[in-house]
Amino acid sequence: LIEQVVKLALTKFLDARTSNHWPIAFPGSTERFVVDTPVMVGQVGLNVPADTNGIIRTQLLGQVGFYILSEDIFAPIIQIDVMRGYLTTDPIIHTTYVQYQPSQVQSQSVSFVAADYNVPPPPTGLLVYTMYVTALVLDMGRTGPECFNASVYTD
Questions:
Q1: H-only helix segments in the chain
Q2: Given 5, 46, 72, 128, which residue has the most CB atoms within 10 angstroms?
């Protein structure tokens, strides 16, 4: 009986993936975010068999580096969204908003940890998560790093 209980309580690792990107192509260059336009900065596809039993759960970690390019009367705000799927219209798993003081003209980095619980098994065997970043004010540069990691487990 104890052996059966232990077997039921064990977690099974299914897959883990990373997506890393550094958007600066040339020293001194800075790609800018377009205001109110989500930009895909990370995507992972996890192998999860369609016939997976138990409660599927995913642990997600991410980091986005950016630069506040100029002092403005408006406080710079950055938004990070994680979707289960490919598109901004897919289910939102996590959202982070960070607001800075207008005088904080410098490099910034935002990190997050999120989880997706009781995930339905994907019919195709591929469970996709996508990370988008949206600048909610002008003059925010995309400097990196842009890191997105996911691990998926079941009972």
A1: 2-9
A2: 46
Cβ 66 vs Cβ 54: under 8 Å: no
Strand-pairing partners, residue 23, are: none
Residue 4: phi and psi, rounded to 5, are -65, -40
Do 80 and 64 contact (CB within 8 A), yes or no? yes
The alpha carbon of residue 109 and the mean position of all alpha carbons in its chain are separated, in whole angstroms, by: 13
pLDDT at 137: 83
The predicted pLDDT at position 113 comes to 97
Ordered mean pLDDT values, 10 residues apiece, the chain (155 residues): 57 96 66 90 97 96 89 82 97 94 85 97 97 89 92 96
Phi and psi, residue 123, nearest 5°: -60, -30
- Angle at the Cα of 67 from the Cα atoms of 137 and 63, rounded to 5 degrees: 100
Which residues are CB-contacts of 60 (< 8 A; sequence separation ≥ 6)? 82, 93, 94, 112, 113, 114, 115, 116, 129, 148, 149, 150
Q: What pLDDT sits at residue 25?
A: 53
CA–CA distance, 108 with 98 (Å, rounded to integer)? 10
Confirm if 58 and 151 have CB atoms less than 8 A apart.
yes
**How far apart (Å, rounded) are the C-alpha atoms in residues 113 and 97?**
13
